[in-house]
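Summarise this fold before class:
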Amino acid sequence: MEWPAVYERLQRLKPGWHVSSQGHLERAVRFEDFAKALEFANHVGALAEAMGHHPDLHISWGLCTIEIWTHDVEGLTEKDFTLAAKVDDLR
């Protein structure tokens, strides 16, 4: 996906998403404790499984970081932005 299209689609997502230096979509979501971060990660995991598109999830106390990209193309595709928008709907 060309960079102008990436930034256009990024503007359609909720605040907090950014493109990392590796070219991945990333967002850190804060919670009041580990259990809530884990619960959110499980919801993201179920959503990802249903879509057949799996992000990297990093969980720590009160924080879940989502990292999305399409491994086959080593970059971003429309599917990545669709998953990110669905993650936004979980919150």
Observations:
- The chain has a mean pLDDT of 95.
- The first helix runs from residue 3 to 12.
- The chain has one domain: 3-90.
- Residues 23 and 75 are 6 Å apart (CA to CA).
